[in-house]
Amino acid sequence: MARLLVWGGDEFAIMIDDIMPGENLDALTRKVQACFAQEIEMAGRKTVATASLGIAVTPGDGADGGMLMKHADLALDRAKSEGRAAHRFFEPSLDEQARQRRQMELDLRDAIAEESFELYFQPIYSLRKDRLKVSRR
Asked: At the fourth CATH level, which superfamily is domain 2-113?
């Protein structure tokens, strides 16, 4: 059985309960993407939509719905970064990369608040000459 859950303005989740062990998830993913790839007409203009998919599979990627959605979202971010109509399965490295990115954001916020940055080089760009100014020391 498949259920469609609306997640946001342009995001949704498909939950499929009855996937058999060994079933080809890549083929199933391509079928979902093919549904989006059909030409439609809107306001007299023909267009084709695409879908990027992030996939998490239980139990390996999470035992509860919250963890599965988090991991599917990380896989979706990776799919979107790789181009249109891509699909990616969750991998543990995606979670580690997200944790490192969040930590770097926190560290940068702290550094800004504490005025910890020091300027060592300030390029000066000449709009008139459309190039970097060269200082002669």
From this structure: Reverse transcriptase/Diguanylate cyclase domain (3.30.70.270)
